[in-house]
């Protein structure tokens, strides 16, 4: 069975119930779930595969509309779920799996192929096989699957870099905003800090208490942020997986991302609390009271 992208030259039409009596003599094909949903087809339906719209066989076995036309009634034997391939998301192709001779007749290619895949054993030297294939005949060009995956995912790489740049800008802006908020919050407690200093509490104890408090606030904010990101990721996947009918995950929240978010939140929170507290404890207590 070969994977065939449905082109404009392929027509599938649901046949009448009378044709179901010939079901045992018909061969089967498989279609993808997007095709089944769009054409309202299910397993067991009888359809007609033809090389052109309207191509039908006459009573004597010939084909109406010319000798090169091909038409055959087949049964939908399976509905295949699409793989999580980024290169297929935006193309919108409807996919059909059929027998090789059927594909040859529908496409009109005969014994020619555009591309084919070769599976290798884990211990096989892939580079040597690629060199041998490229030297078999002129016009052959072999590529490793990893290189093909990279080439077909250029758009996603650009989007990923764009999102990374937005993330860096957001982190820098949020760190400045966080520092300003911490300075303002500590400034509001200047009388409390002055009272602690006059009671004999050391500067290091005051700084330590403010840093611990800012760290707890940072952890709480990180938990809320991870929960919000997880919910947003579910919403994005639900929308775009239904839109493109694909199991591909467009947004993921992984443990490394969560660990990075927690570490970054703690660093920024502790740093902002430390800078704000150091600025305040270096001021004499009486000056904090306004005297």
What's this, in brief?
Helix content is 51%, strand content 11%.
Overview of this protein structure:
There is one protein chain. This protein has 3 domains: 2-107, no CATH class; 116-152, no CATH class; 154-288, no CATH class. It is 51% helix and 11% strand. It is built from 9 helices and 6 strands; from the N terminus they run βββαβββαααααααα. The chain has helices spanning 33-39, 100-107, 126-134, 145-152, 154-188, 190-198, 203-244, 255-281, 285-288; strands spanning 2-5, 11-14, 28-32, 46-50, 71-80, 95-98. A 6-stranded mixed sheet has the order 1-6-3-5-4-2. Helix 5 runs parallel beside helix 8 (255-281) and helix 7 packs antiparallel against helix 8. The chain starts with a strand and ends with a helix.
What is the structural class?
Answer: alpha+beta
**What is the count of distinct domains?**
3
SSE sequence, one letter per element: EEEHEEEHHHHHHHH
What amount of the residues lies in strands? 5-15%
Question: How many β-strand runs?
Answer: 6
Summarize the amount of helix as a percent range.
40-55%
The poorly predicted ranges are 1-16, 58-67
What Rg, in angstroms, do the CA atoms define? 33 Å
Average residue pLDDT: 76
Number of helices: 9
State the distance separating the first and last CA atoms.
Answer: 89 Å
How do the strands of the widest beta sheet line up side by side? 1-6-3-5-4-2
Overall, the morphology is: elongated
